[in-house]
């Protein structure tokens, strides 16, 4: 009996150590395990915001669910706020574009390079020594900001996901605009997820790449 108890305790200790070791894995090692070397095909999506208005039957008050602007009066503001909260998530969807992108991922000790020959998708280089990203056509490096963990499926991907986020700010005509990159994995589908947001002449472009 004592022998069985000792074996059980050893087993529990081993499992606990494995969990702790996984939790203590360097984020860059996790990133290297997501972006494995080789050719990867990605579907391309953009965020489509459906512009529509909802009528309040009491006095025809309008709600613009794209801009989150609510035209309301004192007597119906609470009802409209409730209506907006219930329906605002329906205003944004992912729209798949009619082409795919092939990324050649080169994973080394110092860099992860995401290369492609298609001008519709940016090239990225992740410096593993400084944890910065060089994004094609963006002059300054993007700096690492945080590790992300989404533990529910209530999102546009219908999936839990985890990943990493980089950003930098650029000043254009006295306004600050933010370039950003997110790299992660959609847990339900086991797919690589990349989001890139850039500004060119104040025009914002955001693309979502999800591996096939």
Question: Can you walk me through this structure?
Answer:
- Residues 4-23 and 50-76 have low confidence and may be disordered.
- The strands form 2 sheets. The chain has a 10-stranded antiparallel beta barrel with strand order 1-5-6-7-8-9-10-11-12-13. The chain has a 3-stranded antiparallel β-sheet with strand order 2-3-4, with helices on one face.
- 17% of the residues are buried.
- The protein folds into 2 domains: 32-49 and 94-211, no CATH class; 53-91, no CATH class.
- The radius of gyration is 23 Å and the shape is globular.
- The longest helix is centred in the N-terminal third of the chain and has 22 residues, at 2-23.
- The protein has 3 helices and 13 strands.
- With 212 residues, it is an alpha+beta fold.
For the structure shown, list the relevant keywords.
212 residues; 2 domains; single chain; three-stranded antiparallel beta sheet; alpha+beta
Distance, first to last CA? 52 Å
Q: Note poorly predicted spans.
A: 4-23, 50-76
Backbone structural class:
alpha+beta
Overall tally of domains = 2
Quick structural summary:
The chain has about 210 residues and is an alpha+beta fold. Helix content is about 20%, strand content about 50%.
SSE blueprint:
Blueprint: H1 2-23, H2 27-34, E1 38-49, E2 53-56, E3 61-64, E4 69-70, H3 77-87, E5 92-107, E6 111-115, E7 124-127, E8 132-135, E9 142-150, E10 161-172, E11 175-186, E12 191-200, E13 203-211
Antiparallel strand pairs: 1-5, 1-13, 2-3, 3-4, 5-6, 6-7, 7-8, 8-9, 9-10, 10-11, 11-12, 12-13
């Amino acid at each position: 009996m004592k022998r069985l108890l000792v074996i059980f305790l050893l087993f529990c200790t081993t499992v606990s150590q494995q969990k702790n070791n996984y939790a203590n894995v360097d984020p860059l090692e996790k990133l290297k395990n997501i972006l494995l070397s080789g050719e990867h095909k990605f579907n391309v999506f953009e965020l489509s915001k459906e512009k529509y208005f909802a009528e309040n039957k009491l006095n025809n008050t309008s709600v613009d669910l794209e801009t989150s602007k609510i035209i309301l009066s004192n007597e119906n503001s609470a009802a409209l706020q409730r209506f907006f909260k219930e329906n605002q998530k329906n205003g944004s969807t992912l729209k798949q574009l009619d082409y795919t992108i092939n990324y050649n991922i080169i994973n080394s000790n110092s860099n992860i390079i995401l290369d492609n020959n298609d001008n519709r998708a940016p090239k990225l280089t992740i410096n593993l020594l400084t944890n910065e990203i060089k994004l094609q056509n963006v002059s300054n490096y993007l700096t690492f900001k945080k590790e992300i963990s989404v533990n529910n499926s209530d999102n546009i991907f219908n999936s839990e996901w985890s990943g990493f986020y980089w950003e930098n700010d650029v000043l254009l005509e006295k306004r600050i605009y933010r370039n950003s990159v997110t790299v992660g994995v959609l847990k339900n589908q086991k797919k690589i997820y990349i989001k890139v947001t850039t500004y060119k002449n104040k025009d914002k472009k955001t693309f979502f790449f999800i591996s096939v």
